[in-house]
Amino acid sequence: MRLFLSFFLFLFFSTQSNAEIGKETGFEIPRYVSLKSDDTNIRVGPSKNYPIIKKYIIKNYPLKIIDEYDDWRKVEDFKRTIGWVHKSLISGNRTGIVLTNNEEYIEVFNSINGNSIGKLGSGNIVNIDKCKIEWCSISLNNFYGWVNKKNIWGVKNKEIVNIGYTQILEDFYWKSLNVINAERLFWLGR
């Protein structure tokens, strides 16, 4: 038992030490955030004295924090533009940008590997409600669904977001409903 506990503690602390921690906030770096405002300047350096290199006019635009200095955060967008933004202009709300692989749209499903309920175009900004290893539950306006994580910029590759204990029940419900609907369609088609 001691051997198992020692091994578990070793694994836990060795994986924790690989993550870089921000000097100002103590949060993991890199991490994803979004913009609070629809008028945000990205600057060359961490001060208002530095020139503006880019202006964002879209609220909830996702950014990746890659460094911290005082009240400023060094950020990168999905086009790899890097600059500094004041911490008062960013939010911890998780959003992402829909990306496609040479296709116009991505499929949105009612559950993981479930039934298609719609499509989203490349460039749409969506709320990231929760993520599993390969899938994210997203929302846009009043529409909700699951998309493959590889099609979203704004979440780490194997990152898990807001998954609670009830997720197992929710997954079981949707999987059962999809099976029942498939059976019904099979019998109606005969």
How would you describe the overall organization of this protein?
- This protein has 190 residues and is α+β, with helices and mostly antiparallel strands.
- The protein folds into two domains: 21-93, SH3 type barrels; 97-189, SH3 type barrels (Roll).
- It is built from two helices and 16 strands.
- The chain has helices at residues 2-17, 167-189; strands at 20-21, 28-29, 31-35, 40-43, 52-56, 62-69, 72-76, 82-86, 90-91, 95-98, 105-109, 116-121, 125-131, 135-140, 143-148, 152-153.
- The strands form five sheets. A five-stranded antiparallel beta sheet has the order 8-7-6-3-9, with no helix packed on it.
- The longest helix is centred in the C-terminal third of the chain and has 23 residues, at 167-189.
- The chain starts with a helix and ends with a helix.
- Residues 4-17 have low confidence and may be disordered.
Question: In angstroms, what is the radius of gyration?
Answer: 20 Å
Overall, the morphology is elongated
- Count of β-strands: 16
CATH topology (level 3) name of the largest domain = SH3 type barrels
Estimated helix fraction: 10-25%
Largest sheet: 5 strands, antiparallel
Main structural class: alpha+beta
Look at the structure and give the mean pLDDT: 86
Top-tier CATH class of the largest domain: Mainly Beta
The parts where pLDDT drops under 50 for at least 5 residues are: 4-17
SSE diagram, text form:
Blueprint: H1 2-17, E1 20-21, E2 28-29, E3 31-35, E4 40-43, E5 52-56, E6 62-69, E7 72-76, E8 82-86, E9 90-91, E10 95-98, E11 105-109, E12 116-121, E13 125-131, E14 135-140, E15 143-148, E16 152-153, H2 167-189
Antiparallel strand pairs: 1-2, 3-6, 3-9, 4-5, 6-7, 7-8, 10-13, 10-16, 11-12, 13-14, 14-15
